[in-house]
Structure formats: structure tokens, C-alpha cells
Design goal:
homodimer; alpha/beta; Rossmann fold; Pantoate--beta-alanine Ligase, Chain: A,domain 2; 2 domains; six-stranded parallel β-sheet; three-stranded antiparallel β-sheet; 10 helices
Chain lengths: 281, 281
């Protein structure tokens, strides 16, 4: 596995691979890798001839009071995991390499960035989209793979690619879960054993909603109430949002008609956890 | 000359040219072509193996009260001129091709977009940068050529390319002028004969400033006052701004030290004309 730290070197590598007709898959990460990330890398190996994993904890997508400084970092471990998973290039730029002096471009969105996490994390998706656009131009992948756990992020990246005509296929990879159902996340590391148990309420409530829909429930309010009730039974958990919305536009919906996205953000201790499920009647 | 109207077809053409190792030059225009544009095309022919000219009157860069509807359009004439100048591809998309339903991405800037035209045309440079970014992804040029008359636009495109790491060389082509010095502009068509004469005050005042600097003047206030005075002698002209600033950051400067940009916007009749000059002591 090659490690590349400079933008120009990465661009040259990609240009050369493309000239040789090879298909490049990109998996953007912030490190602190878990099985969810590795599963994206394996998917990349199937979809591309070469897999590039970027590892960059992007300051622009953290608000000042958020966890940029304390975000888990373990480069040696990440490097080994990626090497063992068959990554071809680990792109690992310094902050100054991505944001040199005088940097002032940012990509903004309209409606898609307003609900869900966008409502509580102002500037977050602008930070995500800006860094992803620059990663796209640096790595020049044919296909880029993102996890479905960050569903709103995935929709925003899809919008970015469609609107700005990046010639890139965006893949949403299904959320990878622990044996007991907890969605894998680097932020699960913030949980102590007791909180780790409490965190199961996210998955439990999503499955409960799925079961309600299977039994014929279509009313958004009833489903969301039940989800909130389920999470309320867990004293360590505090719901930030629980919303039923259209999976494309992310606009809130009142009923499960064709498909609906049920999206959750829950605070447990120091961790802010998100999860979601697509409901189909 | 090939005319391409669809994004996918344009992308395929470019991908195929790139695979054959050909260098693509892009000249983005809004049509209503004049010798200034054609001079960019000729420059493109020197710098690239293939020249693509885009012709797209971009609604997103006009404010509601501006001249989008009345902006001069003459496709047949433009097509002939481009054909005669040796253009390889004329990319001429419909508005819905560039802004399909649901489009909501926009690129914004910080300090660079605030002074000069940015102060009087809110949203203008965001509209320019967003369409240029999408044109870059559609045409995938190696080099893109812009006129120096639109100096702030050129600086913003340079910033966009640097910040988002587009692998594109940006060329600023010197302003092309009429025999009497008036900077060529599609908006000169708005001038009646009397206004056309009055419009000479822009160039005259810039040359006057240049002469002052040659004689040893370095004080920004003295230079700007003289420029305003020169334009004030022309009753049909109204200065929108006359500013001395740093050619890189566009921040206002108080004196001509190494180099300074003197930038002008002047209203004459229905036309809003801009021009600029780089001053060196």
C-alpha cells in the first residue's frame, strides 16, 4: 500500500492510472476505522481496479463547540487495517495541504442541508461537500463509496455530483452493524459500557418502527411517537431528532406511502449517534 | 465545428480526446461574441490541441433587476464566428441541461467576492463560479482562458481552481480594445453613438492614472480622485466604483507600491461598463 500525502502526487498517480484504463474507487474517511469503513473498502475493490482511501479529519465540518480536537485518531492502526484490506493508496494529507493560506471557497446547499443534522450542525454539510469536491478533484475517482448511516451526507454528495456534473458514480453502502444491531461509528468509542448498552435503543426503536409498518401502520406521527417512546425508556438517551421524511428530498412526510426514511439523532453521554432506516409499506 | 448540446455527449467527447492524449482548451462565453472572445479562442488554439467554446447565458449570475432577458443573443452569428476561428466544439446547452429540476448547489467565496462588482452585484460571483465549476466538470479542459477585463471574475476562478484542486491551468488573457481604447464588451451594444463616445472616458481615465504613476505619483487617493474627476467631465457617465486595490487579494490599498489594480465600473445609459489597469511604479 502506497501512502501519499501531497495533492500533486495524488493527482499524478490518478492521472497515470486513468491513462492505463484503470477504474479508481475512492472511500473518503476521517480515520478511526471500523468494520463499516473496511466494508466500504472491500466494496471499492469489487467496483474498481484500484482503491484509494482518504484519511482526513476535516476541521471545516466541525462546529467550534464540536469534537474536532477529541475525535479519535490512530493512524498506525488505520494504516494496518487498510493495508490488510487491500487498499492501493492511502491518501493522508495535512490540514495545510487541503486548506492552504487564503482558502475561501465553500459549497453550499439549499433545502437538502436544512433538516435533520443540518438543523443542529450549521455549516457541517458545507464543510463536508467542500472537502469531498476537492477530494474528487485530487483523486479523480470513477466511483466513490459512502455509508448509508450518514444518509443526509450521502444525499448531499449525490446532489453535488449531479449539480456540478462530476463524472463519478456515487454508491451508498448499507450501514454495517455490531452483532447486537448498533450501527458502527467511530464515535461509539466515546461510550462507556453502560452507555454502550443504552445506545441499543436507536436500533431497537428503528426495528420497532419497521414492525409497526409491517403490521399496516402508515401514520408518521404514530410511528415517530412510538420511536420517541422507545428511546425515552432509556434514561441515558436524549433524542435530538426523530423524523420521517422523503428519502430523496428529505422533506418531512406525514405518512409512509412508497418509501420513507426514518432518521434519528440521539445523544448518549458525550456521543451524538445517528441511525436511520428506510420504511416500505 | 461540432455543436454539442448535452452534458453527457460533451463529457464523452472530452474523455475520448483526453484518452488520445490531446490537450483541451476551454473558452467559456455568454455569446454575443466580439474580437475579445475570438482572441481568447485563438489563444486556446495555441495552448491546446482542441478548443471548446461554451456558449451559455447563465441566469444564475444575473440579479433579478439585471439584464438577463435583454442580454444580446445572436446564435447564428456566434456560430459562424467560432467556426471561422477554428473552434473544434461549440458547447451550447439549454438552461435545463445545466440547471435541472432540484438543482441546489452553489459555490460561495469570502473576501474575494466582497469588493468591486461583488459589492453591487450580490450573488453574481457565486453564479459565475458555480457554472464555471460545472463547465469544468463537463468539458474537463487542461487549460481555461478568461479575459482580464473581468478581473475580479478571473481572480475568483483562480481561487476556485486552487481551493478545489481542479487540475486546470487558468489563463488571464489581456483585455482586447477597440482602436480608440474602449474595452471590448458585449454590453457595448447597449450604447448609442453619443454614449459610445462618452464611454471612452473609462480608458482615458485609466491612461491618465498610468501617466500619473509614471510621473511618480503613488498616493491612491490622488489617483482615484483624478480618475473620478476625469470621468465626471463626461456628463453621460456615472461612476459606480473607482478603486485601487491589491491585484491578488483585491483588498483596497492606499498607495501604489509593487503593483496595484485600478478597477472601474461606470454606468452610461443602459450599459454598465467595467475596465481596469495594472499600475506599476
Amino acid at each position: 500500500m502506497q501512502i501519499i500525502e501531497r495533492v500533486l502526487e495524488m493527482q499524478r498517480w490518478s492521472e497515470s492510472e486513468r491513462r492505463q484504463g484503470r477504474r479508481i474507487a475512492l472511500v473518503p474517511t476521517m480515520g478511526a476505522l471500523h468494520e463499516g469503513h473496511l466494508s466500504l473498502v472491500r466494496d471499492g475493490k469489487v467496483r474498481g481496479d484500484r482503491v484509494v482511501v482518504s484519511l482526513f479529519v476535516n476541521p471545516a465540518q466541525f462546529a467550534p463547540q464540536e469534537d474536532f480536537a477529541s475525535y479519535p485518531r490512530d493512524f498506525e492502526r488505520d494504516r494496518e487495517l487498510l493495508n490488510d484490506t487491500g487498499t492501493d493508496v492511502l491518501f493522508h494529507p495535512a490540514v495545510e495541504e487541503i486548506y492552504p493560506e487564503g482558502f475561501e471557497t465553500r459549497i453550499e446547499f439549499g433545502e437538502l442541508s436544512k433538516p435533520l443534522c443540518g438543523a443542529v450542525r450549521p455549516g457541517h454539510f458545507s464543510g463536508v461537500a467542500t472537502v469531498v469536491a476537492t477530494l474528487f478533484n485530487i483523486v479523480r475517482p470513477h466511483v466513490a463509496i459512502f455509508g448509508c448511516k450518514d444518509y443526509q451526507q450521502l444525499q448531499i454528495i449525490r446532489r453535488l455530483v449531479r449539480d456540478l456534473n462530476f463524472d463519478i458514480e456515487v454508491i451508498g453502502h448499507p450501514t454495517v452493524r455490531e452483532g447486537d444491531g448498533l450501527a458502527m461509528s467511530s464515535r461509539n468509542a466515546y461510550l462507556n459500557p453502560e452507555e454502550r448498552k443504552a445506545a441499543l435503543c436507536l436500533y431497537r426503536s428503528l426495528r420497532h418502527a419497521e414492525e409497526m409498518v409491517r403490521r399496516g401502520e402508515w401514520c408518521g406521527a404514530a410511528i415517530v411517537d412510538a420511536v420517541r417512546g422507545e428511546i425515552a425508556r432509556e434514561p441515558l438517551a436524549r433524542v435530538e431528532y426523530a423524523t420521517l421524511c422523503d428519502p430523496e428530498s428529505l422533506r418531512e412526510v406525514e405518512r409512509v406511502e412508497e418509501t420513507a426514511l426514518l432518521a434519528l439523532a440521539v445523544r448518549i453521554g458525550k456521543a451524538r449517534l445517528i441511525d436511520n432506516i428506510i420504511l416500505k409499506p
